Amino acid sequence: MGCAGSSQTKGDGEGTLKKIRKPKPWKHPQPLTKSQLLQMREEFWDTAPHYGGRKEIWDALRAASEADLSLAQAIVDSAGVIVQSADLTICYDERGAKYELPKYVLSEPTNLIQES
Description:
The protein has a domain at about 35-105: Ub domain-containing protein, DC-UbP/UBTD2, N-terminal domain (Bacteriocin As-48, Chain A), CATH 1.20.225. The chain has three helices and five strands, in the order E-H-H-H-E-E-E-E. The relative contact order is 0.23. A hairpin with a 5-residue loop joins strand 3 and strand 4 (about 100). It has helices at about 35-45, 55-65, 70-80, and strands at about 30-35, 80-85, 90, 100, 110-115. The strands form two sheets. A three-stranded antiparallel sheet has the order 2-3-4, with no helix packed on it. Helix 2 (about 55-65) runs antiparallel to helix 3. The protein is of the alpha+beta class.
């Protein structure tokens, strides 16, 4: 336990300041075009608040997923998001609500195909 002015050290174990990173390369079950991927992302973000949690946290996670790593880190830190998985696939808010993000909203699959 520390005071409000203390900083978290590397071995603290709480995980609230975990440095985020890009997800590992992944493959979708079927090859996708860029427009199919964007449609899947849009559908997820449209329905995400219905999974529970707070809309402002979902908005912060969306902004972080669409930003570069340093900006994404600043967004999750300022929103009070507790990152369990460094690739942002599992996060919590300060009230303990869980937020699970599919990899397709965080990065592109290795089997993305060109549209003709």
